[in-house]
Amino acid sequence: MSIAESLSPALGLPQIQMLAAPDMAAVDALIRRRLASDVVLINQIADHIVSAGGKRLRPMLVVLAGRACGAGGPMQHQLAAIIEFIHTSTLLHDDVVDESDLRRGRSTANALWGNAPSVLVGDFLYSRSFQLMVELDSMAVMRLLADTTNRIAEGEVLQLLHVHNPDTDEAAYLRVIERKTAVLFAAGTRLGALASGASEDVQERLYDYGMQLGYAFQIADDVLDYTADAADLGKNLGDDLAEGKATLPLIHAMAHADDATRARLRQIVEQGDASAMPEVLAAIEASGGIDYSRRRAADYAAAAERALDGLPENEAVAALRGLARYAVERRH
C-alpha cells in the first residue's frame, strides 16, 4: 500500500509544527542555554548555526515519539537537545570535509571562520552532548547514544571511501545512509519512547520507524540536489556531483545507461565535474533515475508508517505518520 492510499490519520506539516510547538520552544531555550561558553568564538559560531534555523526535525522526532507514548517533559527536552547537538556537530564537520560554503541559505561556519574553528566547535558540541547525557544518569541512554555517534563516525569515513568512486552501487549507498543519517533518526525516536517508560516492543517499533524515515528523508534529499531550486534548497545545486558523490539518481543512471554514456558518467564522478550537470541530468532523465529514487524513498516512508501500526492512535502518532509523508513529498 502506498502512502497516498493509507487510511491511517496523518497531520500536515503546519499541524505537526503547531502540535510540537510548546515542546520545541522548551528545547530551543535549552539548546541556547547549554550552548553558552566563556570562549567567545564558540558562542559566535554556535549562534551562527542555531540562528540559521532549519527544520529541527530530529529533536522534534524525540518529543513526538515521547508524546506518542503518552508522556513528555524535561527529560524528552534534554534528549532532544542532545540529538540536535550531535546533528549540528556533524554538520560542522561535514561542511569542512565537503568544503561547502553554503548551508540553509547562509555561509557555512568554515567559510566564515575557517576549517580549524569549525572542527573544534563541532568537537565542543559533541562533548556538550555527552555532558547532557551524563546528567540524565541513564546507562541505557548513554549506551544508545555512544553506539549511535560511533556509527555516525563510521558512516562519515565510509562515505569518504566512496567519494569519486563510480563503482558505488545502491547497496553501498544505502550503507552510508544507514550510518550517516538513519541511525540518528532512529536513536531520537527510541529515546523519546524510552524516556516515556514505553515497553521494549514499543521502543523497537519507534526505532524501526526512525530508521526507515531516515532512509526516506536522505534519498529524497539526494533527489532534491538534482531537482530543487537553489534558493529554496538553501545550498548550491549539484553539490553532491561537485564533491564526487554518486547518489541514487546517478547510481541508477549509470546502471541503466549504454556503454558510452556509462563511461562518460564514470569520468564525471571521478573528476567531480559540476559543469557536466546538464549531461548528468539528461542521463538521469533517460534512465528514469528521479522517478526510481522517489519510489524508493516512498517505499521507506511507507515502511516507517507500518512500524507505527499497533500503537494507540493519537495526535502524536498522526504527526509521526505525517512526517513520513512530508519526507518524500517536500520540494526543499
From TrEMBL:
EC number: 2.5.1.90
Keyword line: Magnesium, Metal-binding, Transferase
Cofactor(s) this protein cannot do without: Mg(2+)
Keyword Cytoplasm listed: no
Keyword Hydrolase: no
GO biological process: isoprenoid biosynthetic process
Superkingdom field: Bacteria
Catalytic activities: 5 isopentenyl diphosphate + (2E,6E)-farnesyl diphosphate = all-trans-octaprenyl diphosphate + 5 diphosphate
Enzyme class: transferase
GO molecular function, one term: metal ion binding
Function description: Supplies octaprenyl diphosphate, the precursor for the side chain of the isoprenoid quinones ubiquinone and menaquinone.
Family: Belongs to the FPP/GGPP synthase family.
Name by which UniProt lists this protein: Octaprenyl diphosphate synthase
